[in-house]
Automatic annotation (TrEMBL):
Pfam families: PgpA (PF04608). This is YutG/PgpA domain-containing protein. CDD domains: PgpA (cd06971). SUPFAM superfamilies: YutG-like. One of its GO terms (biological process) is lipid metabolic process. GO terms for molecular function: phosphatidylglycerophosphatase activity. Coiled coil: none annotated. Residues 26-162 form the YutG/PgpA domain. Signal peptide: none annotated. It comes from Bacillus smithii 7_3_47FAA.
Length: 173
């Protein structure tokens, strides 16, 4: 891989992380969701291990692309810069608009089908940071971001579950 290509990859991850932070989401917020999802199955699980799994998920290029795409659409909707009817659909997080979930599925898919179960569950009950992101009274549009954060947590939970299930194997991704 050329230096220029590696720098572009690093820039994508750096920007994805920065945009999450700008929108009020920390790695620890997502890791707390992972802990919430996995504590029942791994009673000795610590937040630090959850953070490591979130970090690994954020290192995936397809995850970074989903973050950048979703947040950009949220920001444009917040600024009123989308054409109708898309502007209203995203701004109000219309119930029958499923593109935000489809984008989230691209993240969930990274670590297998167990992620779908985790994602569906966490998307339904919206604990922690997801409750904050779904609060429409702030004026912020997080139509994509709430699903992206839930999907990152679900993918990290899946990664953790796979690694625990294959503890005798080495898994690098």
């Amino acid at each position: 891989m050329t230096m220029k290509k590696r720098d572009a990859l690093n820039m994508t991850e750096k920007m994805a992380r920065e945009w999450l932070t700008k929108r009020g989401v920390t790695i620890e917020d997502i890791a707390k969701l992972v802990l919430f999802l996995q504590k029942k199955y791994h009673p000795n699980l610590q937040l630090e291990e959850c953070i490591q799994n979130v970090e690994a998920v954020l290192g995936k290029r397809e995850v970074q692309n989903a973050i950048l795409t979703g947040i950009q659409l949220d920001v444009l909707a917040e600024q009123g810069k989308l054409e109708e009817p898309l502007q209203s659909i995203i701004q109000t997080d219309e119930g029958l608009y499923g593109v935000d979930e489809i984008l989230a599925f691209s993240i969930v898919n990274v670590y297998g089908s167990i992620g779908f179960t985790n994602y569906g569950y966490i998307d339904k009950i919206k604990p922690g940071i997801l409750e904050y992101l779904n609060d429409k009274s702030s004026g912020k549009v997080n139509t994509f971001l709430d699903d992206i954060v839930g999907a990152i947590a679900a993918a990290a939970s899946s990664r953790l579950a796979h690694r625990a299930g294959n503890s005798d194997e080495t898994i690098d991704s």
